[in-house]
Amino acid sequence: MYDGWLKIKDWMRERVAVYETYSKRFPTRNDEIGMSMKVDCYGWLDTTLYKNGKKVIEMPLSEIAYPLISIVEWLERIIDLPGKDDKFEESLHLDCEGCHVMMHYELVHAPEFGAIEGYRGLLIVYGTWVGDPKLKENTLAAIVSLPDFVSAMYNGILNFFAPLPNRKYTEEYIINEWPAVGGEADDVMQLYNEIKSPKLEWFIAPKEYDGWFDVDFEKKPIRDTVLMDARPEGLFWNLNNECIGNEEALHVDDTTCDLTEIQELGKWFAKMPKQTSANYNKWLDKGYMLAMKVRRFMPEDVDLFYVNYHTKYQKGSARYEIVPDMRQVVKGKHNGMRYREIK
pLDDT, tens digit, for every residue of 315-331? Predict the structure, then answer.
């Protein structure tokens, strides 16, 4: 590790140590994973992973390998486990300038078919850094719920590039510091579209039982995003933090989306409890389900995000969650939650 390259023996040493720990006591509760990113100069993307609200590992990723696309593709492979060859684990090695990261996931509990919420896995993220004395060789190990883990990682990446209100960086800053695949980015939406994954969004979306079967995906370019955040002043917000809709209608550019058919939306918005209320988390969950209905009335080239506050990650601050557009799902030749191709 000390010459700047990830050595197999060091990765195996860390992996064995993790197995030894869990062999003594296997947790019954899942850990919660969070991700945050910030841009440093010259295309560095400092990525931090959290476990149960605590910072555990920092990864100074670089533009060289365009690691975010690799992470998204790794997550797509994970939701296919076990694969056609009954493979139960997926690993990803990110080799950036001065940063070598191994990200590993393996299934440890797969219940009966149909109970996706019960899928649990072991996550190990092991990193070594060269040239920065502030960053130390470190390992994150956690037992995670598969859909919750995929949602946390994917939303963490999307949140960085999505043009949402109160974003930390300007669009100009992001596109100047971070390239698109094959060259410079024209705007932040180009980067956003490169990391979009209809397959991951289908996986984390609430679905009826039949929604798991015979599916394929259609990726369409997104031109804008809208935020659904219940505030006294309104319900929907654009990039400039301007209110563009309430429980009756949503206005996106020259398009008006009539929401009067979603009768529960007005009742939900009118009964917003205090964050200290015992019913607040249930109210947030109900809002996400209503956001799924709102998405059906919106243009297909405009994404919707929902503000969710009940998470250990970020200690009570807002977390934006993509509201999947199930219109991206089309009739296909795949079957079941394992997404195995039908021969």
Answer: 444 578 999 998 887 77
